[in-house]
Specification:
Protein name: Bifunctional protein FolD
Order of helices and strands: EHEHEHEHHHEHEHEEEEHEH
Number of strands: 11
Bound molecules: ligand LMY7XDAE
Function: Catalyzes the oxidation of 5,10-methylenetetrahydrofolate to 5,10-methenyltetrahydrofolate and then the hydrolysis of 5,10-methenyltetrahydrofolate to 10-formyltetrahydrofolate.
EC number: 1.5.1.5, 3.5.4.9
Strand content: 15-25%
Shape: globular
Pathway: One-carbon metabolism; tetrahydrofolate interconversion
GO molecular function: methenyltetrahydrofolate cyclohydrolase activity; methylenetetrahydrofolate dehydrogenase (NADP+) activity
């Protein structure tokens, strides 16, 4: 293996220590940061991510509340709860854990959250601000990826970044953030023909497909930086990314592991956004 590992778990821990001090200062000014998370249904992965958010919040001194709702809750009821939270001055950040049950229109829910409390950075107003390079809440996973690259002083400006995946929460916004950093960005997706033609030209390859181990060293340019956003649970219960780690690590210069890569950074950036919301910065 030649690649250096970018360990998101360790970096997230460092960031939490810095944020803990920031929260102490904020509390001295009388502001008690609060994150309210809404969990609908009993998807075990969602439940475990929400637990991770509660634990990380407690570590930095952010007060967190979880509102648990049955999978049969109506969209109307969920909207009513969000409207109440929007009006509650003690709540700084609101997050609805995704995915939602099929009968609830995800976009209606995202758009109901006040943009000033949208610590996920998913509201169209915040997405628009991000696109135009304004200060706003950045979507947590893309923000985490940029923070990981910067933590290793990996050059972004002028580099060719190839992203595989075009979801609203990862693929599209990470491309925009990298464009804001002056990278040249190519988006690939399930309908891209001859994927390798693109990926082998990438200085930085970001993989967010949701298929275990499908990207190996044959898809890489020598010394590429590989960011694996995939989290796939195998039948034996273990977690693996979208990238065949050992194969890719033999050719890459830097690589993120799964677990302990991008995932923990998603939660760290959520805490960052919550502190920003508590400071009233948007
Ligand atoms: N409202 C949101 N919903 C979802 C988001 C989001 O940012 N906002 N992202 C994902 C899930 N997610 C956070 O919510 C998330 C995923 C993974 C991790 C993480 O730390 N993963 C660990 C492994 C954990 C495990 O053992 O399962 C790792 O990669 O090391 C944190 C958060 C979808 N929904």
């Amino acid at each position: 293996m030649s690649a250096q590992i970018i360990n998101g778990k360790d970096l997230a821990q460092e960031l939490r220590l810095e944020m803990k001090e920031e929260v102490v200062k904020l509390k001295d000014t009388g502001v008690n940061p609060n994150l309210t998370v809404i969990l609908v249904g009993d998807n075990p992965a969602s439940r475990s991510y929400v637990k991770g958010k509660e634990k990380a919040s407690a570590q930095v001194g952010i007060q967190s509340e979880v509102i648990e709702l049955s999978s049969s809750v109506t969209e109307e009821k969920l909207l009513e709860i969000i409207h109440k939270l929007n009006e509650d001055p003690s709540v700084h950040g609101i997050l609805v854990q995704l995915p939602l049950p099929d009968h609830i229109h995800e976009q209606h829910i995202i758009e109901a959250i006040s943009p000033t409390k949208d610590v996920d950075g998913f509201h169209p107003i915040n997405i628009g601000r991000m696109m135009t390079g304004q200060d706003t809440f950045l979507p947590c996973t893309p923000f985490g990826i940029i923070t990981m690259l910067k933590s290793k002083s990996i050059p972004i400006a002028g580099k060719h970044v190839v992203i595989i995946g075009r979801s609203n929460i990862v693929g599209k916004p990470v491309g925009q953030l990298l464009l804001n950093e002056n990278a040249t960005v190519t988006h690939c997706h399930s309908r891209t023909s001859n994927l390798k033609e693109y990926t082998t030209k990438a200085d930085i390859l970001i993989v967010a497909i949701g298929k275990p181990n499908i990207i190996d060293k044959e898809y890489l340019k020598a010394n590429a930086v590989v960011i694996d956003v995939g989290i796939n649970r195998l039948d034996n219960g273990s977690l693996t990314g979208d990238v065949d780690f050992d194969s890719a690590a033999s050719k890459a210069s830097y690589i993120t592991p799964v677990p302990k890569g991008v995932g923990p950074m998603t939660i760290a950036m959520l805490l960052h956004n919550t502190i920003k919301a508590a400071k009233g910065l948007t």
